[in-house]
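Class, look over these structure tokens:
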Amino acid sequence: MDQNFLSSIQDFTSNGLTLKEPSEMDWHVLNGWGRATLKGYNSAVRKFLVYMRSVGRRFRLPAQADDIFNFCFWCGKSTTKEASWEISAVTLRKYLSGLKAWHDYHGLTYPVGIDRRVGLMVKSSAKEDAKQPMKCKKSAIKLQHLLTIADTFSKGSEEDMAILDLSLVAFWGMARLGEITYDNQTIHNAGPKKRDVTISSDGQSAVIKLRNAKTARPGELQYIRLTALRNALCPVLAIQRRMNSCKGLDDAVFGFQTLTGHSILTKYRVVSRLGKIWRSSGDDKLSGHSFRVGGASLRNALGVPIEQICDLGRWVSSSYKLYIRPYTSTEKVEALDILRQLNSAW
């Protein structure tokens, strides 16, 4: 971790009232959590502090039982109120975990004996959630969307080519963009480097080592596994192009060369550039998450066993079901036709 990342979790490292610079031991504790987990915890603390300010409290750790009860009632949905700051019961559960972790980090005791009452409040909020209209699921990237990205970026700048290659890897590797991009231009230790990529001697497969995967336990490595295709959308060729753009083993693999050196792709930049394409084509329901959804959905439509999809997508529970979007018979025929045309043109 570094100072740039620390600034993004300063609510969590504060005691509520005062910003605190982590000691060496504090850094050691923070390293026990993943970056994504810490950012989630920071969001929880920030929401809690917003609540405290709304009731005129200058809060300082530790929290009391009534603080937690009132926070749950304030931000959870109920039959007696409706407010813009309310969150879902699922998010509330995550925030409560974040508040517990906040106390752990500062070596303080989270209120005891409150789980039963808090659990009932969360359950009550969940019932209210069930009455709300279902949110639209994230759309899936399909092959025609990949072709649009390729048509737009393949003859563009070095950055354009890097975004195209990242898109191909994200789709076929069912990757989360946050795992293969970078927070900003100054943080190079979050995403994969050239040394983290291995391509087989026959060029038919590649493996990308992830050191900061969202669902990984502390110190656990996860892997994106890619298989070569006999067409222009091949993810192995895409990662090979990114490796060729690197000068050193510690260069960010999803980057590109500029006149001033090696530049990296930030998640914000990638999503912004792709968003312009999607909005112009009327596909504004697509997002960075749609690559993972799309890769899983296409494999499912083509009859790939669920066990294999889960293995490649690194799902260890039934949560994979949230990512599968059904293909109609027409969409399946169209996908197969695109693959045949691409293969014959290669």
Summary: The chain has a mean pLDDT of 93. Residues 4 and 186 are 8 Å apart (CA to CA).
